[in-house]
Amino acid sequence: MSAVRRGTDAKCFPASVRSSGPSLGFRFLRPLPSICSCLGHIDCQSCNWTGSITVPPSLISALRALGPSVASVPLTEAVRAGIGAVVGLVFAGLFVLSPAIDSQLGLYLIAPFGASSVLLFAVPNSPLAQPWAAIVGNTVAALIGVAVCLHIADPALRIALAVGLAITATILCRALHPPAGAVAMTAAMSPEAIADLGYRFALTPVAAGTLLLVLVATLYARLTGRHYPMRQVDDRNANHTVDSSPSTRAGLSAAQLNTLLERYRQNFNLGAGDLARLVGAAELQAAAQQVGPVTAGSIMSRDLVTVEPDKSVQDVAALFRRHRFTSIPVTSKGQRYLGMIFQIHLITADTVPIGPARVLMETSVPVAFMDTPLGTLLALMADGEVDAVPVLTGQQLVGVVTRTDLISAFARHSMS
Fold it and tell me: Where are the transmembrane segments (predicted)?
């Protein structure tokens, strides 16, 4: 209920209202027009009222439910997804599919391809965006849309029936793909095109166009560091052995993970492989919290052996032999960090590298700072992609955290 204090005229409400009690996250910067309670008109200035209105918590909860439910996304990821859709549709439109309807070959762009591009390039980890869901889902929906269009005369009934049947059929085929509803609707709304193409509409343009977008999305994901199709629980790890990646070793089988997804009705939102990764990440975070407020600055190695980029590869190999390191930072004068050289680069080289150290230098290694928490360091090294993380202050290298440093930190905590 609202708490109101009235002024000289007991029949009029205020010329301005300010929220008290639970906050909605905003305040009125300009006076609201007063509303006369007795006459119902606006801008009644017959009183000098001041007061407050308490907003019910239920209203706050309802308004929050209408707000964004997706966490904020980095600008680079938003741009990556948008460029991917541009690349996919431009490639399809220039080389395979015509922007105009082609009733002879059936190779033309349809609106649902835009919706498929959203899933394929923006959320490639979604089960709804996987190749089976996209290709089979769109094709099945097209077949249903054509059948309904050929046998149902009433437009409204034809459209509704086509979409409803497409949803049911794609779920039963384990190929739910939201744009499939638009494919069925497109067929139901295009009796002239369907009269020319018939069931061939499901093959061209639908199946052929979707397959092309999936192929482009697969290549684009590899080029931009994403995984498409999505990871599986039994995917090979970075060492090319049959063991699953450390981050997915949740102690649960693929069947158990799928059972959890079914129990909580998350089959359409998350794959078993990604669920295993989330469980593993949560376990790492919980383990880090048990250790306490440990940061990179408190456990890092400070007496560093570094090389300059012009140092010879032979000198780098000698340092590896002498110090038994698995990684060596590359710095310029003044300890300005440039990159890392890992011993594995020397081992896996097809031929003995010749030249300066920069030919072996890896510049995309994740970095930490003095206040980076232990949980973040664990996540960076859990999958075995790197075995050391440089610690920086600005651009200057001040330390390195290795796996040995992490193990020592946990050992000290266990003994204490």
Answer: 78-98, 105-123, 129-152, 159-177, 197-221
Are 385 and 410 within one domain? yes
In terms of domains, do 301 and 284 share one?
Answer: no
Residue 233 lies in a domain: no
Q: What is the largest CA-CA distance in the chain?
A: 93
- DSSP per residue, 163-190: HHHHHHHHHHTT---THHHHHHHHHHT-
How much of the chain, in percent, has pLDDT values that exceed 70?
A: 78
> Is 285 in the same domain as 402?
no
For residue 289, give both structure tokens.
């919290």
Tens of pLDDT, residue by residue over 79-118, are 999 999 999 999 998 888 888 877 777 788 999 999 999 9
Tokens 């399809």 appear where? 92
d(CA 176, CA 284): 33
Sign (positive/negative) of CA torsion 318, 321, 322, 327? positive
Are 249 and 284 in contact by the 8 Å Cβ rule? The answer is no
| 285: its two tokens | 């975070």
- Same domain as 104, residue 45: no
Contact 9, 51 (CB under 8 A): no
Residue 19: partners with Cβ closer than 8 Å, 6 or more residues away: 27, 28, 52, 53, 54, 55
At residue 352, what is the residue type? V
Q: What confidence score (pLDDT) does residue 243 get? A: 57
Residues 134 and 186 in one domain: yes
Cα of 298 vs its chain's centroid, Å: 32
State which residues form the domain around 51.
1-68
What is the number of residues in the chain?
A: 416
In whole angstroms, give the CA distance from residue 338 to residue 205.
50
Total structural domains in the chain? 4
- Shared domain check, 182 and 108: yes
Looking at the structure, do residues 318 and 333 belong to the same domain, yes or no? yes
